[in-house]
Amino acid sequence: MGNIKAIANGSKKDVILKKAAALFRLKGFKASSMRELALTIGVEAPSLYNHIVSKSELLQHICFSVANEFTLQLQEVELSKVSNTKKLEQLIRFHIKMMVHSFDEVYVANNEWKYLDEPYLSDFLKQRRVYENKMVQLVKEGILKKELKNVHPYVSVLTILSAVRGVEFWQRQKKDISVEELENNMVNQLLTGLTNI
Amino acid sequence: MGNIKAIANGSKKDVILKKAAALFRLKGFKASSMRELALTIGVEAPSLYNHIVSKSELLQHICFSVANEFTLQLQEVELSKVSNTKKLEQLIRFHIKMMVHSFDEVYVANNEWKYLDEPYLSDFLKQRRVYENKMVQLVKEGILKKELKNVHPYVSVLTILSAVRGVEFWQRQKKDISVEELENNMVNQLLTGLTNI
DNA sequence: TAACAAAACTAACGCTTATTAGTTTTTAAG
DNA sequence: CTTAAAAACTAATAAGCGTTAGTTTTGTTA
User: Fold this and answer.
1) Domain span at residue B164?
2) Does A174 lie in the same domain as A151?
3) What percent of chain A has pLDDT over 70?
4) Number of Cβ pairs closer than 8 Å across A and B?
5) Is there a single domain that holds both residue A168 and residue A105?
6) How many domains does chain A have?
7) Burial level of B168, CB count in 10 A (0-12/13-18/19+)?
């Protein structure tokens, strides 16, 4: 039929991973068939198995490469010598940028992780829990330093992490607003609110 | 094997719908089989078809009953004679309450609507678009009345609607914080922000 | 050009799926 | 008790799934 075109500096597996992320995002992991994935690549389904181990492996790779990117960025932010408010702002901006530039992958990690097999499922959830707890810690410290209002730290983190996922909807009608505008508006609403006083 | 126990004031179909919402929420629509649904009800899979038309019909019913509840509440809020800020607050609180009290159904409507068949899929998306646009209008008016900051209305609505979905995470560890506390904290963060000044 | 490895192909397997057909059991009314 | 309807059952179907086996084509190096 055809053959898998490797992109510059990327293996054929990378091509499969990219197409898989796009398909899984669009149709969901369970509703995406290996035959359909192969079709978007221009190859027969069994040919994929010369490059990958299984369908599950694709999901694992997508979920953990996203999780690792977030974990890495969090570690970097934690080390930086700025206020806790600024740290939270940096994280919010990073989340938005990830949603914009790696939309398929982030969406899949956010919405399809439940189809991970063990032990990957437990590992993923653990990594996410650690991430959340570290953000909660940032908020707690910000409150102690009087930078932040006396909010419930966990609810605050949960609100932030959910809010940034709203970029998903922006993806569909990105025409009339730039990434910078999106980012600034979202950061402002989360940090300083919507109302005048 | 068994038989479907109708709950007080509800048909057997209602029982199936309730169990379907719970299963679809937990495993996702595509990964939920009619056999497994039947098992949770205590009946063989083909027996379900004495009460329902198809698996798709279950999803349609769940999605549209949720969508209609939100649409109805929005109409009520629009008619009330309070400030636009208060209208938005009422809507946020309603979203949180729905996430708390009809979690399975709202989650399914939020996350599994893509598996709706046509023409239901288009109808659902249209109804959601209308809902979003009406919220955008509330924000626009609030800005004109100087109640609200000069934010980008669409980004603001998208942030609010995503943020309230964060209640999903609260559902897993609801022990150490009450619904009221959750609701007040989330409303405050969205309307007045996280930072001191 | 010969030889070897990589990667494509076709065919098929075993399994699961939603759903239908046909039959038996349960429930409710006269 | 009889009867009719409702709702359960068993068995089976056709379609789709991820994946494997075995074979052929393609690409690379000597």
Assistant:
1) 55-192
2) yes
3) 93
4) 150
5) yes
6) 2
7) middle
